[in-house]
Amino acid sequence: MQSMGALRMVVAYGLGAVSVAAIAWLTVIARPVEIHPPPDPVSPRALPSLSPFPDRTVTTDVTVARAARDTLTGVPSARIDDRQYQARVTITHTIRMAEDDALAAWIRQGNDFPTGIRTLVDDGLGRISVGGSWLAPTVRLPPTLTTRDGRTTARFRVIVLRQLSAGTELDLDFQTPKAQPVALRRTVTLRPTEWTVLRTTGLQPERETPDRLRFTTGEQVRLWLVHRSHGFADEQPMDPFAWGTALAIGTTVVLVFFLLRSLGTAWWAQLPNRELAIGLLLVAPALLVPMLTQSVESIGYVIMFGALPVLALRHASRMVPVPAPWTTRDVLAVTALGVLVALGMLIWSGRQGQLPYPELVAGAMVVALSAATAAIVFSADLGVRNVVVRLAAVSAGAALGCLALALWARALAHGVYPPDSVRLVLGLFWSLIPIGAIAVVTRTWSRPVVAVALLVGLLMQGWPAEWLDDGSWSVDPASQANPRVGDRELTELLRGVFGLLLLGFVLLVVRLRRLGQGLPAVHNRAAVSITIVLLMVLYLSPRGTGNLPDLNVSVPLLSITSLVAWVTAWWLLGPPDPDLVEPATIDEHRDLVRSALHKRLLLISEQELYRVGRGKIGAGELSMTDFEQQRGDLETALDRHGRHPETAFATAAACSPWHNGLQGFVVCLLLSLPLGLVYGAPAGTDLASYLFDARYLLTLPAFGFLFGYFYPRLRGTQPMTKVLHLMAAAVLTELSAYLPAFVEPDVALLEKVQLVAIVVGQAALVYIGLGLFWEWRIMRLAGEPWGRVRNVRSLRSLATPLVAVIIAVGTAAASAAATHTVDRLLRGEQVTSAQK
What is the maximal distance between C-alpha atoms in the chain? Predict the structure, then answer.
């Protein structure tokens, strides 16, 4: 028996060695993948070849001149700053070719205008980027064709409008054509008019005068121009106090203070939490430095996708009190997913010629069968068929994964690999962070959380369209340009940072839910701090930036808006009412509401007695004895109910703060959805930036969540009075983002009034509807009809909803009558330097 067991082990180890050897052999013989040029964004059948033709010539004329008033007709007046220079850059590309040239015929068809023309000019001739502050969208005029004496001339004009302050350099970047080989070398003539060429790079001039600069380029050339009226002082004056920097620092300090306060003393009392805080404090600088410089960017990748996942899983293993409920089925499911990914990678290896298909298929079969047979031999003595089959399946899947991983590493060594695979690996590693973090917050391991975290981790690195782009599988990864957010390239590292910010927001919401299961959360300092942090984050950049003439004015207001959200939230959460009695059950809530309704009836009856009694006593229809008796009965009844103000409509109605907050958030979100249709759908290059851009849809509902969560603490004694205080706070916060529109002299008074009307109308439409819903909800929970407090047959009772309707109609009218200036101010259209 011992000899048979030893023989079985030898066979098993031998089969395992065969599998490992097959993987090593296939990896060694794998060939480098050929680098293919990036696919043309226009169909090859639509755009003719741009290879050099001896009879084609290209010239580019660039004229930089002051933008006259008639050329700024479509630019909103609020965007034009008379203190700055408005530059009009006119770029004219001229292609001269034979009459029967295929390019001339393609231009005449104009099937892909303007996309095809833009591709021809930017990719075939080289894109010209113009710096400076964005003033208006770039305009491309239709091409003009002239044919004479067997020659065809095509002209393409591009008009760019920029705004520059005194001393600001106007940057002209003549980029290298993307089409390979370079289509044509072009002769560029620059006419700077009122500007002077300050410095250049990559340029050898053929003619150089103050009014004209001519050069030939096929590579990248950059020029910097300044206005001729500007001079450089020998000594630079001291910069004035920077309000933007001060407010940004102040906002950061307030956010950090409330963030630390939201954790609570109980959180800091635990040793693993303190170790986690120290670990994050140590890795934060090493993660932020690569965001500022690319020289040490690799360190940031190691920390983001290596150190942080390990730190998160280690902390979760120490904090979660229950073991992970993973079963054999979970292992099989993970193996199946791994096999799918491995098959995709192996198919790529075959398609790109890393290994011929016959060798790849034969080698994969040897690797999988050897591993599976080795597992069967190892577990044969167990005698349980299901266990043996599962071990064989897992072993075969693991072997195929190792083969795909080895070939992927070989592709990395050769320098050409599918870019999607890098995002896949980084996304999988990053997903370990939310898995561990949510396990700590929920105090348990959950399969749905793992699945959602994996999906979010993959989406953080790009939308599904990027993953399914088959054309990206055969190009040099270095030629794949990442999208940009602002002035930064959206690399995988920056995507991970955005994901961490989104994760932190979600974790705060989850903690707020856990704290809000009981009524004491209304007065919990941690819950208040979390809510303030969430509000401040949502208002850090309301409606976007870069749409006002003086950018130095609008940037500080981003911090002002966030700080105003903090102040208004602090004002709303007034001191606790000592007379407020919170019902513990629905029955107690019902008794309080019925008692309050009875007290209201007595007060109305007393007022009616005084109003009617005066006439009846004078007419002799009511004696003073009867009047005093009725008044005494009412006074006695009122004394039994207490003389203090009623508080039944100011309680949480025996519901948890989280439940009330969720109700307020959902109602406000539904009421504000029409506003989202006005401003348009959010946009973003990935999941994090998309959600970041969608924050304007959550600002008003966030105040609705504050209303429901801390309803007993809000100022007021009933839903409508509390809603009016809430609306005042929200309107003040929203208007603080548009202060430049009020101080800007170019914005007319009527436009400023329209701006206030729109903001007030939006808040009134959402929050008055919330107040009416809350009235109905309190009465419904008490089992009483809403008509007891809101009589639809009484005009006085309908005053509040009628005012809401009138304000909503007025808002719609103001929005329709508002000019393009106010529309730009409200939408806050973001324009990045790359999009300019």
Answer: 125
